[in-house]
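In this supplementary section we document a worked example of the pipeline. Step one takes a protein sequence of length 271 as its only input; no multiple sequence alignment statistics are reported here. Step two produces a three-dimensional model, which step three serialises into structure tokens for compact storage. The input and output of this example are shown verbatim.
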Amino acid sequence: MAEAFILCDCTEGLSNSKFWFNELSGGLPENFNYDLVRSPADAKTLILTLPNCDRGRAVVGLYRHHDRIGTAAAYVGIMVAWDHDHREVVDAFGSSDAFVTALKKVAPSLGLAIPERMEVWRGAIIGKNDRLRIGIGPSWTRNRNVASWFALHDYAPALQPTLAPVVLHANIDRSMIVVTHGARAEREVIVDVSSPEFFARSVITLDADHPSTEFEHPIDARCPGGNAFECLITRWQMAAAHYERQKRALRLRRQRARCSSGRTSQTPVEF
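The serialised model returned by step three reads:
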């Protein structure tokens, strides 16, 4: 099957070929010919057709061939995979820093609408005695509700007594932004947190009505007795619930749009 896959002369491009759709759903061949990816639509089809376990390897391949397939195609493929499984993409590149370095080479230029300073949030789960710096990563959002949802959707206090959800707030410099990304209504901002300038040009606090004092302080030192922090968690739960309602409404609208447009089962579907 693999030999037939590689030897077939497909001139239509991935997004127009039923042959490629059928073959790729079984996995990515080791010697896949990335020259067949001729457009951003082809790159999207490639990622959505592959099983999840092969998507990370595919985006690394798209990135390594970006000089031949075009930076736009490589960027679209990387971000489609990123939307569906951050961990697969990061693991394939080796680290989140390596992912951001690669993304910077294919990402489009920031639009003029991006301000010199931007307010962003990030949700994470960290150890109760960890410094908040542990919760920093490349993915942030311009929507506090989204960050709250990410902080809480995998948090189970009964099973994780030593962990705590946190929502970080940051005011960052435009020069630290790699790309803004609107997929799934998450208002994502990918930030180069590995840059030596990131902390020098950013103001980062624990999300609250009033900024916390020192960013380096552990959680328990910020909230003696835990009462203030429990209050924060309650607020984040309310924000996360609001975003969950928005997600359900958006999903319903998209399902109705697909039904009205007569989308067929042969079309790769984002999930």
